[in-house]
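Weekly modeling sync, notes
Attendees: AB, CL, MP (scribe)

Item 1: holo prediction request
CL wants a bound-state model with pyridoxal-5'-phosphate before deciding which constructs to order. AB pointed out that an apo prediction alone won't tell us much about the pocket. Agreed to run with the ligand included and paste results into these notes for async review.

Input as submitted:
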Amino acid sequence: MHDLAARVDAFGRSQIRVMFDHAEAAAASGADLVRLEVGEPDFDTPAHVTEAAFEAARDGATDYTASVGIGPLRDAIADTLQTEYDLAYGPDQVVATTGGMEALHVATLTLVDPGESVFVPSPAWPNYEIHAALAGGHLESVELPYPYDLDADRLIDAMDDDTAAVVLTTPSNPTGRVYDPTPIRRVTAAAAEHDAYVIADEVYAGLTYDRDPTGIAALVDQPERVVTVGSLSKTHAMTGWRLGWLAAADPVVEGATRVREATTSCPAAPAQHAGVAALTGPAAPEARMYEAFRERRDYVAERLNGIDGVRAPRPEGAFYAFLDVADVTDSLAFARRLLEETGVVLAPGSGFGAGGEGRLRLSFANSLDRLEEGLDRLEAFLEEAEST
Ligand code: PLP
């Protein structure tokens, strides 16, 4: 019997999923939970978007499409990238993908040779490590100290000629930080010197609260060295539709197109039509979601400021606050105890790599009422721990 491929042993189970399983088990036994670990909008997909998919399917959009996606979708993505993020990609530089996740996977397969490294500032979203391992490469984490500013010097010092790519996620999951242009420019220039690429994970780019969103490729002197990844999941409440994109100059876009022919061939045809409606139809539903996230961000930032023993940088984007809780060294153990004793569910920071240990991610993709309840319980729990 053949063993599993070695690359499968290169990564373990996500601690976020482990926590999720604990929460599901507690919910099944009737616990009163406040679920603040979830990384997806608590809104429904806008009705006109769902309707567009139904209509398209009824009209026969049930076949394979071009592997880069249908023309109107690529046009709509290129227009959005230009108008919302100052990114100058033509439709022929856009590949529609099955979520931002597939775009990241395909970008990594396209750029990384076996034995090469992919750098990430840590804490980071855990799937980058798996994508690197699936490409035969490996992840190198560069830890960012609190409050998780992008430290260009540390990244640049760590890179070498075996570096194939650097992933920059801004706004960041899990820290909610939005990186400044200067370190982004420096890291991109250093990557270019090593003939490496920056994979710009901009799936949260539409959710920045304090400054206008700008794509990384629009900020740097080497835009041809940037692969831009985006998605409708977070900004349009479309996680289950699995629709995203990558945009890049040649030869990356041409290589990525060949790779993706063998991954999913194309995103589901009705989902692509839904994507066109999301990007070209009424914007009011997204604007309402955005305003709700901004209001919750303000609330969560203010509450966290007032809780003894907790510090967190004010979230500037996405829908996460990253809590540094005094005396926590094992974030999974803390998250489990918090769940058992208060019903509040947070994601353990250790799920985001070494740079996340000792911290906890709180998602504010939940109603203000539930956030208030969750933060009240967390505050009481920490006060009691302090007094005993
Ligand atoms: N990148 C980051 C940082 C994420 O947090 C996620 C999802 O949680 C993704 C990419 C992938 O999103 P999707 O595949 O739903 O577009």
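Recorded for review: The first strand starts at residue 34 and ends at 35.
Action items: CL to compare against the apo run; MP to circulate these notes.
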